Amino acid sequence: MTIDIRRLRDRLPQEIADLESEARREGHRHIARLIDEWSIGDNRFDRDGERLLGAYVDGELAGIGGMTVETAMSGALRMRRFYIRPAMRGRGIGRMLALALLDHARSFCIVVTVHAGNDGAARFWESLGFQPDGRDGHTHLFALQHHSDDPAASNLHRCVTPRSP
What are phi and psi of 5, to 5 degrees? Predict the structure, then answer.
């Protein structure tokens, strides 16, 4: 099994329709919202720090995940529209996709939020180091680590630190 993480830019992949159908069958509407927002231009994951990635297994789209500016928290980014096909779960694809997005975020900020839609998603995000923090529309926070020799540290003035409870 070969896993390839690709940046999605100019257009959504054709296979997104299959992903959306599978998500809808599971009761999830966030992939349909991704398609709708993309088609009308509301969200193309093209602002500073934003990114949309597709996870491909042996050339087939297995999942998708994005990072957008977190509007409820100054300087933070938010994981969005994250979905892995049910048949592809448990193979490390979601973890690889999430870690690629977190690695990207390190150049832009020190806090990433996510809204875990169910208990399984909450366990997944917590396994990556996200901490429960249910406010401002998100359920979890992740504090990214910067090192003093990290060139991204110069971006810290634009970011926030997690608030105390």
Answer: -100, 125
